């Protein structure tokens, strides 16, 4: 049974135990089922959520229901700061990927936490700067790369987080085509086609429990050449 | 002659006069010519810049030199907070649009300003939240709209800031095709083609000193229909 405590939340690292214990009591605690919606875009809630167990996915939906994944967050992270900070409607929807225990902190408590502990405010600022950098890269990719090259760039990104050798990586479990599609704003079919092409050319090899990525340096060159058009 | 003072910077609004005067002395002041580069992407400078006079453009360049405009900033705004906050290389390049007077504040002074004045920190947080929201919309547009509809969406955006009547707007001066192209990640030629099409259909009418946009409600519907695919 997972304990209802914020002691492993990165944002709060180093705060005194009594402050953490007080915050624990000021949050609403709730278990979410896999695929359950946590935040509805355009909703006017302003709570900040801390992930104590499980994973969540940040998504935006087009009017027609197309799903665009912005990011996945895991244990120790938080989400929902944006609406808490600017008071505007939620900028994205959030759903649980698997069963998740979340702590919802009311907006006024979150803001007083920032004012009272500059280290927390600094971490929130750094976190937002990171999101802006990632967004800029994505805008650049969307603006300059075709769908095939966006798949290559995404596989490379995942490979770099899972290097097993100088020029090789092992991504486990095997990335799901529709997940990649959602992340790079393309379709499952396009991703499947590009992945088959990469397998044929020897860049990826499917295993039972994961995907081997090879010739990473060459793949990097390919992406950068197209990016430069 | 513009005075070298930060008193009209929005971020610092409400700070005591003696704090402003001290900050004035702690900045490096410089005039930039039109089109002069202010920040080079990937440079390791960490100053924060305040715009006392003039306008600047935030851009990212692809390896091949394609220019993607992220935003234009004008008097009273600041830029360069990202590298000051996270210490990483600049996320974008910045150049002067016209002759501009800027104050460059050293990173340590900026960070102590945030810690010492929570209202300033809160404004920086709000500002970054705004940038993230804009980026999300742009990612959504790039992911769901074709180039023609991105032009429509951009014209609508500018029209809504310049309404003259319930269903009509006047954008002055006439938007430059290459500027629109840079902003929506398309070419000058594509923009020209789409704008001619809009003129033929009666949505825009070119005047000597500006662009009339008509039937804004209908144009909005057109954009939303495509966005929903």
UniProtKB/TrEMBL annotation, chains A, B:
The keyword Transcription regulation applies. Residues 145-217 form the HTH crp-type domain. The keyword Repressor does not apply. Residues 11-131 form the Cyclic nucleotide-binding domain. CDD domains: CAP_ED. One of its GO terms (molecular function) is DNA-binding transcription factor activity. Transmembrane segments: none annotated. This is cAMP-binding protein. SMART domains: cNMP (SM00100), HTH_CRP (SM00419). PANTHER family: CRP FAMILY TRANSCRIPTIONAL REGULATORY PROTEIN, HTH-TYPE TRANSCRIPTIONAL REGULATOR ARCR. Keywords: DNA-binding, Transcription, Transcription regulation. InterPro entries: cNMP-bd_dom, cNMP-bd_dom_sf, Env_Response_Regulators, HTH_CRP, RmlC-like_jellyroll, WH-like_DNA-bd_sf, WH_DNA-bd_sf. PROSITE patterns: CNMP_BINDING_3, HTH_CRP_2. GO terms for cellular component: cytosol.
């Amino acid at each position: 049974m997972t304990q209802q405590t914020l002691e492993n939340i990165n944002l709060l690292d180093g705060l005194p135990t009594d402050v953490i214990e007080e915050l624990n009591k000021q949050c609403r605690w709730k278990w979410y089922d896999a695929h359950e919606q946590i935040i509805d875009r355009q909703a006017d809630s302003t709570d900040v959520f801390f992930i104590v167990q499980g994973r969540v996915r940040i998504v935006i939906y087009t009017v027609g229901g197309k799903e665009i994944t912005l990011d996945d967050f895991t244990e120790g992270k938080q989400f929902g700061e944006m609406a808490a900070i600017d008071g505007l409607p939620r900028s994205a929807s959030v759903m649980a990927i698997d069963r998740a225990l979340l702590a919802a902190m009311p907006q006024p408590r979150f803001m007083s936490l920032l004012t009272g502990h500059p280290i927390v405010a600094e971490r929130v600022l750094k976190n937002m700067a990171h999101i802006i950098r990632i967004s800029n890269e994505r805008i650049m990719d969307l603006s300059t790369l075709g769908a095939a090259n966006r798949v290559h760039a995404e596989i490379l990104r995942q490979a770099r987080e899972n290097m097993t050798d100088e020029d090789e990586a092992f991504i486990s479990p095997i990335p799901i085509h529709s997940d990649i599609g959602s992340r790079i704003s393309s379709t499952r079919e396009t991703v499947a086609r590009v992945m088959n092409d990469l397998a044929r050319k020897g860049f990826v090899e499917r295993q039972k429990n994961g995907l081997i990525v090879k010739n990473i340096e060459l793949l990097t060159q390919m992406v950068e050449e197209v990016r430069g058009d």
